[in-house]
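User: Hey, my collaborator sent me this sequence without any context and asked if I could get a structure. I don't really work with proteins. Can you help?
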Amino acid sequence: MNTVYSPYFDPDFDSLPERLYGPACRVNIDNESLKDCTIVKINSVNKQGLLLEVVQALTDLNLTISKGYISSDGGWFMDVFHVKNELGNKVIDQRIINYIQQTIGSNRVVNPTSHTQTSLESKRSEAKAIEMSGKDRPGLFSEISAALADMGCNIIEAHAWSHNARLACVAYISDECMDNPIDDHRLHAIEDHLTTVLRATTEGDQGGQQEVKPAGLPKGELSTTTRVERRLHQLMASVRDFDRPASRISEEEIRRRTTSVVIDSCIQKGYSMVTIQCKDRRRLMFDTVCTLIDMQYLIFHASIDSCKGYAYQEYFIRHADGCALIMGSEKDRVIKCLEAAIERRVCEGVRVELCAYSRVGLLSDITRVLRENGLAVVRADIATQGEKSVNAFYVRDISGNHVDLNFIKSMKREMGAIDLAVMDETTNSEPAGRPKFSIGEIFKSRIERLSHSFIAIN
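Assistant: No problem. I've predicted the 3D structure and written it out in structure-token form, which is a compact way to encode the shape of the chain:
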């Protein structure tokens, strides 16, 4: 009998590079250097999509990025972010710090609040995710809600955006009897019926074909809000919400617009430099970064700053195909898409928050009352928490008149047993101030020296 020998592999061999050169990704959380914010530093071997991964992780935690410096030339990725929590304070919660350190640079999905979301994640895993996009009209979200209720569907969670007469929505639906999951045959019937609702308009469709289909979200990534929001950005872009006839733009709207996007050429290094100035808000960096990446642009350097309610961002980019400079019609398209990405999340008007025991048809009843009282839903976020349904709507008057907050509160009688909170988020004033200098000018002057200091990791 012949003896067969197999090669020996040292189990520590795979970790040898890390033991020799250190980890491929280092995340440092600094709460000592600054008094008013936490500094997050990332040093890593560069890989495609790492910047978006970092921004998504910080955004999922509802952290506000007040400053940022990014560089990813020479095979190495270096990020510095100044972040604050929802209350505007430093990040001192150890669970959040652990989440940042464990998530960034790894392929693991860790949820710092999983103990509070187990029920929702369980319901969501049993539900079917569908997405809708197309031309918007007053009352359309109410019609969609009513159609789902008529077909015996329970809405576990939904997110809808409306911008420039376009609608995008991602919804998780289940059968009214939770014991019976929705099969593929019934799902197709639901999609066909919703498509009919979307197309029930006498006007020609100018924003692309109305479409209802299974949600285009990667499996295993449905639980993060930013992935759903990124999909909403993609759906909005697919129906060209960035296109708006000049005749529809009033002089008052032009005067009030505070978003500025400019693209210049950085010939020395072969980049296009995108400069963005606008009102500051949460999730702004996520919106701009995912838009550039979804348009197949690579971000090599960036600087982010905010001052007194105003944001300033500069990105040094190249197209994924290696093309360095953006010219002509492509330049106009990038500018329009970035402007739309910034503006579509901003909902000036009245925010209505409602909480009630979850039941089939609840969302249909709420949106019907809003519609019958002349209010249009321009954004909606629906979630189920235990036995309660938590709904947040941004609404405005269909006729363009000011929405009376007391009038909305009086509608509670029509909605039944429900908790209601109303707040006016209309802002007409200019930001208190703008950055008086360009961080990008300083940053750009150091790019060449910074870039040559990197070494490739083989």
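In plain terms: The chain has a mean pLDDT of 80. You can pass these tokens on to your collaborator as they are.
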